[in-house]
Every structure is written in structure tokens, then in C-alpha cells.
Amino acid sequence: MALLLHASSAACARAAASPLPPPCRAPAAPSSAAIYWGRRRHRRRLAAAAAASDGASDGDAAARTGGVPDGGDGRGYHLPTRLLHPPSSAFEDPFRASGSPLYQTATFAQPSAVEMGPYDYTRSGNPTRSHFEHQMALLEGADRALAFTSGMAALAAVAKLAPSGGRIVAGDDLYGGTSRLLSRVAPAVCGVEVVFVDMSDLEAVAAAIRNDGGGGGGKNGENGDGGNRKKTDLVMIESPTNPRMQIADVRAVCALVRAHGAVSCVDNSFMSPLLQRPLELGADVSMISGTKYIGGHSDVTLGVLAVRGSGLADRLAFLQNAEGAGLAPFDCWLAARGLKTMALRVERAQANAALLARFLDAHPLPTRVNYAGLPGHPGAALHASQASGGGAVLSFETGSLAASRAVAEGSDLFKITVSFGGVESLVSLPCFMSHAAIPAAVRAARGLPDDLVRLAVGVEDAADLARDLHAAMALGLAARDAEGGVVGGGGVALSSAVDDAAAADRALARALAEADAMRDAGARVVELEAEVASLKEELAAVASAASSKPKAPAAR
After folding, report:
1. Does the global pTM surpass 0.90?
2. Is 175 a residue of the active site?
């Protein structure tokens, strides 16, 4: 039994001491691993020398790489490339595995009884988690990143930055879990005052942060405390918001927060670091529910905090360890694997979402379409100034709960479930699912209607999604007409059923034409890549022929 228990560690020790078995032992010349790490150290020295010579600031480096900091190695690669080829790792793998190693262990042996190594207990740290956190810090341009067991675990740690008796200002259109945490847990358990405000109204945000309104802070202010003026400790922002896609001026709000000595946290789950970078916009903390675009396959639950400032990062790391909220090794491994394909998935899903948003905007059933990428969306220009795309989530209203339910239940490709960011397309009625924890009266006061439909668009073929949604929308039109038109429509006359069907067919035809164009563009890219590869081969052949040609004798 003792042999079974200790054979693995002994074998690992022998492997580390002798990477090659005796019959194949390498000669005295430097090993490939030594050459590899030597080259890496040389590149780092060159990058450090280059940075010292030109004295470039972090902002200058970001500008040279298209707004994407390069992690300090001077390579200047774009994010999709860096997701596959991170410039450095949290630890050096002596075997140079193509995939990141998985340290599926709870404990680590220590050098001696009175000395501690870098890891002792996985709750406090694990090499696999360090690797993932290191990658996320590089991607976000953060001083440190922390991986939690869920997005809510990450936000719970952030909320504790406000001390007992402190004050939090948050947006009034938030993910339902965040709203539940701030309205029911923070005040009752932590003794924190929480004020909700319309984050798209900068004047209301400023008044709430200053606490001019005696705790109300905004148009709703359901958790105000009369005339007791408290200093604001924390401001929590979403942009675009979930689920109505309201746009906040992240730069301006973070500047206000900083001027008042508070901490700002942006929930960037809808966008991911590929489309929006809150720390570059002035935020102190960027939170991402990694369950979404990072994992990307609806098979892992996690949250990530990317933090600016070592002091703030240390406070959050203490909470992560003290409360046992660190992400487990296998989940970290899945998340690190998900990063490698995130750019492809987000790009495809966003293109599909933009196409469906235009389809819905032209369709007769929706009374309102919410998508930050639509030119007519409130705050679209502001969003374009701080993000590089509209994302892959959209919502719309029908004015009829029966119609919205018929759409959600009539789709074959859109699964009825919560969440977003996976490869499959999803549909939900937020008031009955992700935001059900918010009381109905509060939802009504915030302008969150029961008939709101949220689509989380995946990576399926755009034409298939458009056809499926067209069929589901036909069921929605029938349900709306069966109950006598749009509820609360203000007496506005609706088109006849025949005209609606014709308009829906025209919207589908445009969407299918766009899908064909997308497919043709992708095929053309493949053709161009093949042409470039062929030209490279021809140039290589010419160069090879030129080098093998005998040189003419030198003239006497």
C-alpha cells in the first residue's frame, strides 16, 4: 500500500531529475529545454531594453497595439493571437506541454517542516489557477486577476469592499442575481446602504455618488435612508445592461467615482475583453462571468475579477482565500482552454446577433428592439466610442406576454434557458427566469416589462437562425392577434395579419441575403488565404533556386 501511495511522487521526482531515460540521455550540449528558456530570457531582456530606451508609457504601448496592451513583451500581437500564444506563464513547465498542465490536487508537499513553497493548499492557490489568472490579467491589462467559483461569488467579494455602514451605488437595470445580492443580502447581512440609479443618466449618477438626494440617488432609490448622508464606497456598473441594453458612459462614471474616492466595478460579462476593456476606461475592477464567453460551452461556472492596483487586488485576494471562493483546478483548466477559441466564437456570435437584430427591427411583431449595435439604439454612438462591437445578446418587446411566450416556446434552435455566451443560441423571458428575484413592482418601476424576450445568440449558421426565428415569430403574431392586438399599445392601429406576414417575409428575405453574403465573405477569405500560401511557396522556390545557382567567378 505504501508503494502505491508514494510511487507517483517518486516517479515524478526521478523524471524531474532525469527528463530522458538512461539509454536516450542527452549529451553534454545544452538541452532543447535549456535553449528554449534561454531564448525566452533573451527576448525578455530585449523587450526590457527597448522599453527603457524609448520610455514608452503603458498607454503608448496600448496605442501601438490597437488599444490592446501586449503584456510587456513588446510583441504587439492582437488579442486573438495572444489568446493562443500568451507572452508568459505564471510558472515554467519543464516539459513545454502544448496544453496548459492540470494540477488536480488539494495539497502540495513542502520543502521542509519550517519552510513553505509557493503552494500548500489549493484553496489558497494552485498552479493551474495561477496560469489562468495570469492570462486574464494580461488580457485585461490588470495588475492582477482572480478566478472565483462563479460570477456572483466574484461580485459578493466586490460588495464587501463597502464596510458595514457603508454605501453602494448601482445601476437599476442589472442582472437579477446582482440585484438580489445588493437589495437583500448587502443591507440585511452586511449593514450596507444600497442605492439604485439609472446609469445612463450621468447627472443622476453624480447626485447619487455625492448623496445629494438623501439616499435616493436616482429615479427609483428604493433603498434610501432619508437625510443620513453617507460617503459612497463602491459604484457597480453594467454597460450594456442586462437585459435592456442601456448604455452608461463608463469613462465619465469612473471619473466621478475616482474623484469621490470610491471604487468602481464594471460587470463586463456581455462584452468580454475582446469587445470592451473597462480598466482602460478608468474602472478599478472589471468583473466577467466566465461561465459565458470564456468557458463558451455551458459546461463550467466561474467568475473573474481583473483589478487595477496591487492594494485593491490584495484586499480581494484575501476575501477569495478567506471565504474559500477560489476556482477549482479542473474548472480553471476548462476556462484556460476556452480562452483559445473565444475570439472565433465571439466574432461569429456577434455577427449572427447583428443580423438577427436587423431582422427583428424590420419585423412587425417587436414594438422595441434593444441591441447596442443598431444605429438607432439609444446610446449607440457612446457605446461605439468605448466598445468595438454590439455583442451577441439582444432583447425585444412585443407588447403581449402571450406573443412573447409563443416566440420563446416556438423555436427549435433557441433553447429556453438562462445564461448566454455559449456556442448554442438561447432564449428566455427574463422577468420569469434570470430576473425573477426582483419584485414585480420594482421591475415595473424600472421599466422591465414581463413581455421582454432576451436572445443569447450562438454560432449556428445565420440563415438557419433567421428561418427558425421567423417561424417562431409567426406563432407570436398569431398569439398577439388572438388576444386582440398589442396590450397597452395606446390604441395604435396594427397592420392586418396579411400585411404583417408579408412584412415578416420581407424581413426574412433580407436576413437570408445577409447570411449568404456572410458565407460568401468567409469563403473569399479562405480563397485569399490559399492564394497567399501559394505565393509564399512560389517565392520560397525562387529563393531556393537562386541560392543553389553557382556564383560567377569574380573578375580579375
Report:
1. no
2. yes
